[in-house]
Design goal:
Elements: E1 2-5, E2 7-8, H1 11-14, E3 18-21, E4 28-31, E5 36-39, E6 53-61, E7 68-75, E8 81-85, E9 91-96, E10 98-99, E11 102-103, E12 107-111, E13 116-119, E14 124-125, E15 129-130, E16 136-144, E17 151-162
Parallel strand pairs: 1-17, 2-12
Antiparallel strand pairs: 3-13, 4-5, 6-16, 7-17, 8-13, 8-16, 9-12, 9-14, 9-15, 10-11
Bound molecules: (2S)-(carbamoylamino)(hydroxy)ethanoic acid and nickel (II) ion (NI).
Amino acid sequence: MKTVTAEPLTKHAFRPFGDVIETEGAESLLINGGMCRRFNDLARVEAVGEGARVLVNIFRARPYPLPLKLAIVERHPLGSQAFVPLQPRPFLAIVCPDEAGRPGTPRAFLAQPGQGVNYARNTWHAVLTPIGGEVQDFLVIDRGGEGSNLEEFFFADPFEVRLPEAP
Ligand SMILES: NC(=O)N[C@@H](O)C(=O)O
Ligand code: NI
């Protein structure tokens, strides 16, 4: 089984797959008479196709044991999908480049507390992957409407996803 080792989640590294939702390095402005700082326009939300609309959801997700066996990835051709943790704990964002309509080698990004992700429309990704042993809630922003918004791919040879060795 091929091994994928998680790498730090950074805007630059994640750019080909979507957005990192975080205040670090984000443009912001003071609003409400100086009582609030708005970190603005952090992700590109897309919802296309017949009857498309943006959904705001909460996912209460169970954690996965590590190392993770990754046998399937998916993508949403009609919309983006954002995951923002509601508890400040790490999670894994696993994505693949598209290679002529099939997912290439996965890349796993370890999101730190304070980071969320937005998968760009049609980006191959693993389903929501909390780690660390506790159920975790996520605010999820994605697309509703008509038509099929899910394409799945089953790897003939699953990958093993693990965290980097402690320094
Ligand atoms: N099924 C669903 O709403 N969630 C998945 O798309 C996912 O990426 O977790
Ligand atoms: Ni998804």
